[in-house]
Amino acid sequence: MGTDQVLLHRFVISQLTAAGADREKLIRETGLPEWTMAGDDMHLPSHTFSRLWELGAHALGDPAVALQVARRYELSSLGLYDYLFSTAPTLGAGLATCGPYVAAVSTNHRFDLVADEQETTLYLDIIDGEGVGRDLTQLWGLGAVLSRARRVVSEPLAPIRVALRQQAPADRRAYVEVFGTAAIEFDAPVDSMTFRSSDMDLPLTTADPVLAKILRPLADALPPPPPLASAWPQRVAEALSEALDAGNASLDRVARRLATSPRTLQRRLMEAGTTWRKELDRARDARLRQATAAGSLSRARQAQLLGYSDAGSMRRAARRWSVTEHAHRCELLD
Description:
By secondary structure, the chain is an alpha+beta fold. The protein is built from 15 helices and seven strands. It has a five-stranded mixed beta sheet with strand order 3-4-7-5-6. α5 packs across α9, α10 crosses α11 (251-257) and α14 (299-305) packs across α15 (311-333).
């Protein structure tokens, strides 16, 4: 079960209360003992943080409440985690602290910063969470990172693209206003913000190399961030399904769908113990099994369904799937 630092709850409760929510009712219905509001070095079950967002949205009648709270994020609210970011020399160096040290505030999340020459994308993954609570928690996470960054750079900062797993809201105005871009994709396979890589060179007005040197040993003593070895294969599987629907399951198309480069995508899959070819074959095999469950299909139709140029290419792939499945079963038997 994931946990979140009580500092997160405390800040959010203070902001929801300032907006008109009943503080005692929030604490009571979230299931938090009152004494937890006084301690600092304490982690609470992550479901309480998701529940807090659900209650806040209902109490204030604002489905985008997480964005409004994130916009008012106050630097230093999360202690060491904020100081690691703000003492870094550049925006890129600051964002690079999100992933390795996220355990300082949450064992239920993982940040992943992926960069190439043109674009840099910050991914946010949640381990345990679903429904509205997950959506609001993810909105808060991305929005708070953006607000924190804007407070320590002297130039305007906005992502060039935002991807959100949640469904599109009836009113998008709050999203555009807070993120500073209309390029927001809903129902995406990931939650992420993409910036120009040139933005990563922006100096932080709060840079402090002496303090950063003091803080780093403290941060390195923290437990490692939670593992998400399956995150990239899951992302690729979702993107592949949509690419196959569109009739173009190329590496380039899937990489664009995931806001990364083909090379980076292949590297992430390798780190997760798989390859692009394996994931593509797995997606096609699953698709074929589903399509033929209700009856047989012609070879030509199968090839079309799986994005092959001809039936011969599909037959060769089918033989490869068979060999791979046999090897997998042998591994299980061993």
